Amino acid sequence: MYGGDEVSAIVVDLGSHTCKAGYAGEDAPKAVFPSCVGVIEQLEDSDDIKAEKESEPVPDSKNGGKPIESDKNKVKRKLYVGSQALGYRRDHMEVVSPIKDGLVVDWDMVDNIWVHAFRDRLLIDPKEHPMLLSESSSNTPQQRERTAELMFEKYKVPALFLAKNAVLTAFASGRATALVVDSGGGSTTVAPVHDGYVLQKAVATSPIGGEFLTECMIKSLESRGFVIKPRYSFKRKEVRPGEFQTVDLDIPNTTESYKLFSQRVIASDIKESVCRAPDTPYDESSYANIPTTSYELPDGQTIEVGADRFKIPDILFNASIVQTIPGMESFADPAPSIRGLPQMVIESINKCDVDIRRELFSSILLAGGTSSMQQLKERLEKDLLEESPQAARVKVLASGNATERRFSVWIGGSILASLGSFQQMWFSKAEYEEHGASYIQRKCP
Question: Where is this region: Disordered (predicted)?
């Protein structure tokens, strides 16, 4: 269908935290930007925007997050996508994510994210390129059909393929059978892949991902009196040459969600710089007098991070630690039902066929941004050795390169879409016109 090397397929991996897009056959995505969107809701008549804005705040999801274009309230949404647009503070801009638990809840925003990826970042015309999109293992048939409809009707792509995240990660490391532990921004998923197919019945998920850990980091620092000032909230003034003083700016119309978004950017950098998974399960007494690591915030104040360096990553292994973080107690109810990584892995393997369990134990793949935390691989391997049956040979594999772990899904897609033997697998426009969107269930398992 597509001859030889001139596939020029585009691979898009829209995750809960970042969207990765680029050409198949390359070793890293060209465009990487946040998958949340800035939303400003405006009333059509520009003169009384201000008056009405103050008298009546427009709720965020008036009708389930669908674009609001009825005549009654004449509200127009202006959407801002991409790191640059979000880095710029605007009055009344809410930051909203169109993806919840791996499923799309707002197609209008996803549409804008795709447009930004194709037109602004990759500078391509989607009509000319087949598209390989990644999807979560729990994606519903309705979502897949909707994706196919949008791609063929709106972007007029010549061909489309939807591949499961876990399968792509397995391909990225050159395996057809593996247990993929994908710890991303929004959640952590453990999915067994056998011969290139996800074993749906054995997929385990947990709501603890990178963003949750970042949230814990912010709360934990605040409880010790460190306030993370977002970058837009201060400016630096030179008092004497080489000596600066920070002046706080008062910006009343900034929304809470934008402030949180800006704080998260900083907190997640703190998390990535200083955190590492502890070798043994965390307990207060043994980590109480551990040497601290200093980190300089954008506004110039230096904070010392001590036990939090180990406490926060350990939430992945033991969710009940969350209750000890001030401000996160509301999370206490579901905590016992949330399992740690080792339990999820063993539970998932036990749901698989007896014949493939040994093979899964010996190829556990770590992927996703959160998995590039230091010592995570060693700790997971150690815990699994203690908990797994005697006969199993446990081996946790992770690419030594953090970029590869972060982009493993995208890299797998890039490998898959550039294979010669894959070219007959595309769901083409002709097939779509003949069989309709539901045919995607047969073409993309």
Answer: 44-70
